[in-house]
Design brief:
seven-stranded mixed beta sheet; 24 strands; globular
């Protein structure tokens, strides 16, 4: 049996389903081939269920506040499986929503395993069933990287997926890697009462981020009694009674730590194997499919987007790349790949981290004369009123033009607030434009205005 389409998308994650919807909107007959759950890892075992659990962790962490008001909270019957069920409900609701959008846009969903067998041909489930398409978009995503000696079994040594599948809270967890995933689970586990130990090879939490805000987060985590070992490497592990004992190396010296579970959060690798591209001569580098600014591969009619190409592995980047590919295929004049300096990141622990663009180190590396402006949350009326005083807003700007190079926020609602500064950068505004814009009082967004005013040398509240 053959199925004929203008566009066939392999994968239904935030890149794949967005690409399919945009292609259909532009009048192209489109199909999505998905071997697993609609919505991909993000909707089912990543972004969405983890944020549902983070929200419940935040609520649970307010118990001391209630007790301060004289309310007695009995935690003896706390059921972590209820937290798990709530996260699954959120994931299932979103997955069903994506399925509805595919149907609404008249996109055929083929629940099959795809293998590309020709430049216009995809074999389904190793059968004689074939999809032919004028254009193919590869959106197969990624999978967790493993660390030598720490093979993920999803029972004792877990990936983020395994951690999200837990129905019982472990008493202690060692987290290998302090990137976004590691930090979010550190917050979740600690909030629900587990002992958390973080082991990171590099010099700071979230090494890709801004050094100053990340050090601020490190101070907060240490106050919470989360153990942090930086510039350390986990070299081996072995079972010791009910615990897993991990040998850690720092500067040539070895020491041991132990916990019930290990979370491996060392990044993700592209899902580029087993989909047939090796038979097409399609170019890859270190497993990533090579594409141009329009997400076109080295084969004219085949495109690749999201985690399977070497761009920031973020859901919103995959979605934008899906739009770029679909619009290019349809012959529309599309904006080419997004400038990396204008891609925001968000980490949803408490306090949150949000940012985009250059750090001080990056600006110095590029030989750009810059200045920074910082405003602390503890000087914010709203932050004081709601007792969320940990954190800062930091703006990096060009010393000559005063145009914004980057911004980084540690604090309450950082992942929401960061977009005001990003919009200012994308619009070519200067620090003084942010400084002169009236913000409602009291709000956390005032912190951006106050930081900009500090950059102008006319701060009032610090």
């Amino acid at each position: 049996m053959e199925f004929h389409y203008d566009v066939a998308v392999i994968g239904s994650g935030p890149g794949g389903y967005v690409a399919a919807i945009r292609a259909s909107q532009l009048g192209l007959k489109t199909a999505v081939i998905e071997k697993s759950e609609v919505g991909g890892v993000c909707a089912n075992w990543g972004c969405i269920p983890s944020k549902a659990i983070i929200n419940q962790a935040k609520i649970y962490a307010t118990i001391p506040v209630l007790e301060h008001m004289g309310i007695t909270a009995d935690k003896t019957h706390f059921d972590y499986e209820a937290v798990y069920r709530q996260s699954r409900a959120a994931a299932e609701r979103l997955s069903k929503g994506i399925l509805f959008l595919l149907k609404k846009n008249k996109i055929d969903l083929l629940p099959q395993i795809a293998k590309i067998t020709g430049t216009h041909e995809i074999q389904l489930n190793d059968t004689t069933d074939v999809v032919t398409a004028k254009h193919i978009i590869i959106a197969t995503g990624s999978h967790p990287k493993e660390i030598p000696g720490f093979t993920i079994d999803e029972e004792n040594i877990l990936s983020s997926t395994g951690m999200l599948k837990l129905k019982k809270l472990p008493k202690s967890v060692i987290i290998l890697g302090a990137g976004a995933i590691g930090l979010e689970f550190a917050y979740i586990l600690h909030s629900f009462g587990a002992k958390v130990i973080i082991v990171e090879m590099l010099e700071s939490l979230f090494p890709a981020g801004d050094e100053e805000t990340c050090k601020g987060l490190q101070r907060v985590f240490k106050k919470k009694k989360i153990e942090i070992f930086l510039r350390c490497m986990a070299v081996e592990q072995k079972r010791k009674e009910s615990l897993i004992e991990v040998t850690v190396e720092k500067e040539g010296k070895l020491f041991k730590i132990a916990a019930e579970k290990i979370l491996v959060s060392a990044g993700r690798s592209p899902n580029s194997k087993g989909i047939g591209i090796e038979n097409l001569g399609l170019k890859t580098e270190k497993g990533f499919i090579v594409t141009d600014e329009n997400c076109k591969t080295t084969i004219e009619n085949i495109f690749a987007i999201g985690d399977v190409i070497n761009t920031p592995q973020l859901a919103h980047v995959a979605s934008r790349e899906g739009e770029i590919a679909a619009e290019y295929i349809a012959g529309h004049k599309a904006e080419s790949r997004t400038n990396n300096d204008e891609i925001p990141y968000g980490i949803y622990c408490e306090p949150q981290l949000g940012g985009f663009g250059m750090t001080e180190k990056e600006a110095a590396k590029r030989d750009i004369p810059f200045e920074k402006a910082v405003f602390p949350y503890r000087a914010s009326g709203k932050a004081v009123a709601v007792n969320d005083i940990e954190g800062m807003v930091k703006i990096i700007f060009d010393k000559g033009t005063e145009k914004i190079l980057g911004a980084h926020i540690l604090g309450a609602e950082a992942t929401e607030l960061i977009h005001e500064a990003l919009l200012a950068k994308k619009s070519g505004l200067r620090v003084k434009d942010l400084a002169s814009m009236i913000h409602a009082h009291p709000t956390l967004s005032e912190n951006i205005m106050e930081a900009a005013r500090a950059g102008e040398g006319r701060a009032v509240h610090i």
